Amino acid sequence: MKRYHNILVYAGTQHRDSAVTRAAQLAMENHASLTLMDVVKPMPSVLGLMTEVAKPDEIERLVAADRKRRLMEIASEISDIGVQIDVCVAIGDAATEITRRVIDDDHDLVVKNADAFSPTGRLFGSIGASLLRICPCPVMLLKPQLHGEFDQIVAAIDVESTDQVHRDLNRQILEHAYSIALRDKATLHVVAAWQLWMEDAILPHAGSVKVEAMRREHHSRVQSAIDELLQAPFADADDVRVHLRQGGGASVIRDVADEVEADLMVMGTVCRTGIAGVLIGNTAETVLSDINCSLLALKPDGFQSPVQRSGSVFNEEDEPLPLV
């Protein structure tokens, strides 16, 4: 199944090869269009006061023109993949301009390298973190040293939530993770955590026997939920492993990811719908602060980005043009 139709890759990082390569491969396999994008930071006003050669906006345009020429060079290097390739350079905040381009042009996947890594190898970065909050389409953040295919993929789902939004998001997570696992011939690890609500507070009043019965009943419900979710095609696959464990969501997800040495995690990152989504869910926030593998982050249906349409992109021969 062709999952992606219009892919955007952010080529503004220093180590961009893995992101461009992965995006080009996905575009080719899905017969999707591909856009290479870069974003120029606005020139600080204090530098404008010190500049006598040119005005700040003129300097920004010169930098944007240089970035666009580099994107054209990259596009020419991958022109043999047989898909439509466009280039785009915007001026402004990187995460905002990427998101605006996604909204204006209906991109269904953003691929970029992780912004940076700490000495311990943990993923972090302001652009990536912002995209996880405001970008409405799936965002794939790749470790700069990524090479080849993924081997161990973790799909983190929430089987304790019974509302339809979370049920649909669980299905999306599995479908995206499974399609990548098939492509890369990787093992897919489906991770779900469960725990009895307020168990420690209930125990002194209800007693251990009653609490144990409640625990077994709750476990049975979440087991039924995951069995229902893991129907065909997942039930027929021999490379899917299920990890249903008692405990907090963040700790269970991290433990499994470490145990299987995951190189890609697929999870939902925003739990608010119907309003501007600027809050990452608690579980995702905790996991992402300590992640050391690549990430594919999905939003629930109904997510509304705080970013509005009608940004601007750099055109070398004219003034910045509105996105339409």
From TrEMBL:
GO cellular component labels: cytoplasm
Transmembrane feature ranges: none
Keywords: Cytoplasm
Subcellular location, record wording: Cytoplasm
Keyword DNA-binding: no
Regions annotated as coiled coil: none
Boundaries of every UspA domain copy: 4-143, 153-298
The keyword Cytoplasm appears for this protein: yes
PANTHER family: UNIVERSAL STRESS PROTEIN E
Name of the protein in its database record: UspA domain-containing protein
